Structures are given as structure tokens and as C-alpha cells.
Amino acid sequence: MYWEKEIETMPREELMKLQEQRLQKTLEQAQKTAFYKELFRKNHLDPQKIKTLEDLRNVPPTTKEDLRNHFPYGFLAVPLEEVVRLHSSSGTTGTPTVIYHTAEDLEKWTNQVARCLYMVGVRRGDVFQNMMSYGLFTGGLGMHYGAERIGALTIPIGPGNSKRQIWFMRNFKTTVIHIIPSYALLLASIIKSEGLDPKEDLYLHTLLIGAEPHSEETRRRIEESFGAKAYNSYGLSEMNGPGVAFECVYQEGMHLWEDYYYLEVVNPETLEPCSPGEVGEILLTTLNRDATPIIRYRTRDLAYYYEEPCPCGRTHRRISRIRGRSDDMFIFRGVNIFPIQIEKVLMNIPEVASNYRIILDREDFKDTMKVEVEIKPEFFFGDLLKLERLRERIKAELRSEILVTPEVVLVEPGSLPVSEGKAVRVIDQRKM
Asked: In a 3-state reduction of DSSP, which class is residue 45?
């Protein structure tokens, strides 16, 4: 059922026609919202004259600030009594963003996620252990319902409590887990500390990783640690959550489901379209959602799209792994740096363990950057000369990647704070 061959392998021309048909429905729904009604009026736009995907570029992008400024109902396109669920951001930095769903919206989202899971080999009979948070965060519930739709035995265990996770994995012979990349590496180390081998004493064949940026090197480390395939995914709550894009078995970019979303990759400064292979900001338009239609949403996620077809036969365009965010970039002595650049370097050095952090500070009106790096136990207790050579090598490789030279501090394994949620990699004390 979830190999939807007709849709997933639809010729590009037919797929674009389907997108334009669904775009008309999205525009009709958008006119029912307070926000878009005012946006169209203020910009002298007639939605009925927006007939093609090219015409859509005349509509100003929607931002997270728009969602916050029109809290709580400015983006709602259906009567409230038709809404059966909402998801929202935490709101810890101000007013939360809220996305509403009708029962039909949830049905479509579930199908979308099931399509992703089936694509990477999840089947009826698998045991799916979901280590993501449940609640307002979309990752837990989104994947949960997709796994159930496939027919997998689904364990809604949530995050943390690593020894309990291991107990369930061993006793119920878990074959698939949904996990944050940094926690996957931490869990592997805890499994080993319990005297177990993640490859020999577990039953995993698939890890679904997402919710935080990670490098290809980190993914390969996860696969080597567990002896199982780890598939990258992309989602955001404004576009439902997980299931927006997913790798297939070839692991060469993530198929973005174009029957659900219209994809644009643009220069974040000019908003002009990028060419295939050129990194830009992802803009997304919902094409198959009733309660909360969103047009040209600025995700702030940076990636590129592939032009060449995928060997798997699916025709929906692929995007690269997220290369960073236009809003988590930090500037150090005039250089724009993304944390993912530093991770890429560190995870490619065999002596480096999985944990690190970047500390930015200011001394005597001058910015400083310190990168604290945990070293694997077998390398940490070498002689001081070898450690100094390693430190200098890390500094040189970081300079080659980010064009500035940070201070590098090698620390013992297990000495940096760990998190069973999203890892906090950057501590910027310059703002304090």
C-alpha cells in the first residue's frame, strides 16, 4: 500500500500539473485566513490570477514571525470545531507558533510518513521503538502514527532513560529506532559500557535519525556503531513535522514529497531562485492541508536540490542534507560559520569521540573561540607529545574549513555535558 508507485514515480510534467491543481485549493483555503486575506489585499494580489507555480513567486514569503504575530487563529482556515489537534513550538523565546490539523490533515500526514518508512524498508512485523519526545513536539506522534500505519509493533517509549531503552530493545527485539543523532552516539557508548555489543546483542536493521543537523561523518559513525543503516530525514512543525523529505535506500539526498509541498530553493538575501547544486534557503508551500495553509514559508534551512534523477526511480526532487541555517550561523571575526562545518571536521578525525562544544567569548574587546573536544579513551592516555600533535592537527583542519584558528582543548571522554535531547553545541557568551 505504501509503495504508491503511480504518485512516487509520476513523470515530472504530470507531477507539476498536480501541484498546480493543488495550489489552487491552497490559495482558496488561504483566503479564508485573516493573515492571507490581509496579505493579498495589502499587496494588491488576486489569488484567482495565480495560476502557475511561477506566478506563486509574486506572493511575499511567510515567516515564523508572521505566525507568532498572528497567534492564535490568524492562520486558521477552517471553523475551530473542525480542528482535532494542534502542535506548537515551545514558546520559550516568546509567543509560540501554532499549527492546526483537521482529521483529514492528520490522515494525509500519516500516509506521508508511512510512505517514508516503507521507502527505507520498514515493514509489517518490524518492532519500532520511538525515542523522540511526544506531545506538542511533532517528531514523536508524527512517526508513531506512520509506523502503526505500516503495521509495525510500535513502542512509544520517548526519549532518555538509556538503560530502559536498552532493556526494551533487547527484550522486544527492536528492529527500527527513531532517534536524535547525538543521542544515537551516546546510546551506543552506554550499550558498550553495559558490556554489550550494539552489533551483536541487538536486532536493529534501521535507524531513523533527524531533529538536529548532523554531518555525513556522524551518520557513518552511527552506522558503524550499530551495524545498521541510518537514514536522514527532514521535517518541521510548520509543514506538519517529520515526513517532509526522506532518504531512500540509496542515501543520496532526501526525496521531498512534491504532491504535498511546493519546493523553492532561493538566495536568502535576494530570494532569487538557486540553480541545482547551489546552496540556498528552502521555501515551502503546503499543497495538501486544509486547516493551516502556508504559502512560501521561509524555513531558514539551507540546502540544495538535485537535478539528476534518483536510481530508485522516484521522480520527486531530492534535497541535500541540511547544510546549516540562515539563522544559526554565527559570525566570528567577520567570518560566517555554521556549527555543522566544525562537526564535519571533528567527526572525520578517528581519535575524536562523539561529544564536543564551541564556546564563544569576548576578551579585551576581541572575540575568542574555544572548541572543547572529547578524545576516545584509547588515544587520551598517550604521551603528551602525541596529544599536542593531535591538538595541532585538529586546529589546522578546522582552520582549513572555517578560515579562522580557534583554541582547541582536548578533554577526557565523558567530561563534557551530555544530553538525551538535542545537543547544545554552541555557547555564545559574547551576548552576556
From this structure: coil
Give Cβ neighbours of residue 156 (< 8 Å, ≥ 6 apart). Answer: 130, 134, 140, 144
Same domain, 45 and 60: yes
Residues 318 and 334 in one domain: no
Cβ(367)–Cβ(430) under 8 Å? yes
Per the CB < 8 A criterion, the answer to whether 167 and 190 are in contact is no
Pair 377, 314 in one domain: no
- Give me the phi and psi of 34, to 5 degrees please: -65, -40
The pLDDT score that the predictor gives to residue 364 is 74
Beta carbons of 329 and 316 less than 8 angstroms apart: no
Cβ–Cβ < 8 Å for 342, 402: yes
| Angle formed at CA 93 by CA 181 and CA 62, multiple of 5 degrees | 85
Predicted structure pTM score: 0.86
In whole angstroms, give the CA distance from residue 96 to residue 268.
24
User: What's the average model confidence in pLDDT over 6-21?
Assistant: 97
Question: In total, how many domains does the chain have?
Answer: 2
pLDDT given at position 90? 57
- Residue 355 dihedral angles phi and psi, to the nearest 5°: -110, 140
Strands, sheet with 297-303, edge to edge from the N-terminal-most edge strand: 261-266, 280-286, 297-303, 324-325
Same-domain pairing of 121 and 236: yes
Same domain, yes or no: 276 and 364: no
| Residue 91 predicted with pLDDT over 60 | no
Domain with residue 380: its CATH number is: 3.30.300.30
Same domain? For 302 and 181 the reply is yes
Calculate the dihedral angle through the C-alpha atoms of 11, 16, 19, 20, rounding to the nearest 10 degrees: -140
Same domain, 199 and 67: yes
Q: What is the pLDDT of residues 307-326, one digit of tens each?
A: 999 999 999 999 999 988 88
| Cβ atoms of residues 83 and 104 within 8 Å | no
Tens-place pLDDT, residues 323-370: 888 887 788 887 878 898 999 999 999 999 999 999 999 887 788 999
Domain boundary among 282, 308, 324: 324
pLDDT score at 92: 40
> Which domain range does residue 342 map to?
330-431
pLDDT at 93 over 60: no
My answer on whether 116 and 102 are in the same domain is yes
Of 324, 344, 364, which residue constitutes the final position of a domain? 324
- 80: exposed, middle or buried (C-beta count within 10 Å: 0-12, 13-18, 19+)? exposed
- Measured between alpha carbons, how far apart are the two ends of the chain, in Å? 54
Residue whose C-alpha cell reads 540546502 in the numeric block: 303
- Residue with cell string 533487547: 170
Q: Output the average pLDDT for the chain.
A: 93
